Amino acid sequence: MERIGIVGAGAGAAAAAFALEDATAETSVTVLEKSGGLCGRAATRRRDGVVYDYGANYLKADDERVVELVTERLPTDGLVDVDAPVWTFDRDGGIEPGRDADDHKWSYERGLTQLAKRLFARTDATIHRETRVERLVRDDAAGTWTLEDAAGNPWGPYDAVVLNPPAPQAAAVLETSSWDADPRDSLVAALGDVSYRRVWTGVFHYPFELEVPYYALVNADKDHEVGWVSREECKPGHVPDGESLLVVQANREWSVANEGRDPERNLAELAAVTAGLLEDDRLTDPDWTDHQGWRYAILEDGAPSEPLRRAESAGLYCVGDWVAGEGRIHAALRSGLEVGERIGADRRR
Ligand SMILES: Cc1cc2nc3c(=O)[nH]c(=O)nc-3n(C[C@H](O)[C@H](O)[C@H](O)COP(=O)(O)OP(=O)(O)OC[C@H]3O[C@@H](n4cnc5c(N)ncnc54)[C@H](O)[C@@H]3O)c2cc1C
After folding, report:
1. Pick the CATH number of 2-43+116-194+302-348 from 2.30.30.240, 3.10.20.600, 3.40.50.800, 3.50.50.60
2. Average pLDDT, whole number, for the chain?
3. Less crowded by CB within 10 Å, the N or C end of the chain?
């Protein structure tokens, strides 16, 4: 029986657990996730009959293996297309028909978290939420790992460990770990090369419909306080008829400058900017709001692969968008599938 410990329950981890199920005959997989939910930055909330993806907006059909996974290997009930187009706007707020109109975009009626939920449901993995891993302990003689959580509890031992947190959080776990300085320090240094764009997201609900022809607006010249505005009502099953829900993502500079400010002030400012952009004064007065500051939102630079592969010889595997080098759900899923298969192959050796 191979014992595998997974840190984090994002899309990458879920795909790794799914692939492991096929790749190794006898495995016991334990997942430790610091938050209360599954699927990490592909995040969904519910309120008053509304479902909204407040992190990643959709899954793109940009990877053949992931397309096969989603359309053939996982249940497709409630898998929905986001058909309406994405238009662009510039720094002066000029809106143009535009980008990506024909690309395939998916969510689920019950939201993007379904991805991890459906992947894990296909496995026998045991998932422990609200369990933050703080350090790894290596036993070289036994060739195993133990995980230590924030309360000091040990988990394991495991024959292999999969690290799914965004690179800076994975580095924090590694830095305090008891493991040979050489592989640990070069891995931590590689993780230090990874960078992310911060995004502050405002969510605005309205008891009326918007009459516009697009699903979303993206700022093409990256010189507007708002980078993205999208309408969850364009995703089937997300918003009841006669209502609207806008997801507004501030641009990098605005997000960095205003992260620590009173969220109500941020929401009021983003609502006003959005009302100006869409030329609709009603948007300054949502009937409810939500928000999230994403510190590690969109990957900018991934990690070099050599130190990651070296760590694998000690049974330590990394998965996620930063491993794939692309800040997208499909890239995280692909990385998870590949790592799950590699663990299976390595354990059979
Ligand atoms: C605002 C925003 C918009 C985006 N838009 C899109 C989009 O439209 N399309 C798209 O494809 N992608 C989009 N992305 C990017 C996409 O969400 C990510 O690329 C993808 O979800 C990354 O998955 P992952 O498995 O690599 O990591 P994550 O989703 O970050 O999962 C890592 C998990 O590890 C957990 N964790 C961290 N530290 C610990 C610890 N110490 N112990 C235990 N658990 C821990 C976290 O809680 C999390 O659940 C967006 C992201 C954001 C934030």
Report:
1. 3.50.50.60
2. 95
3. C
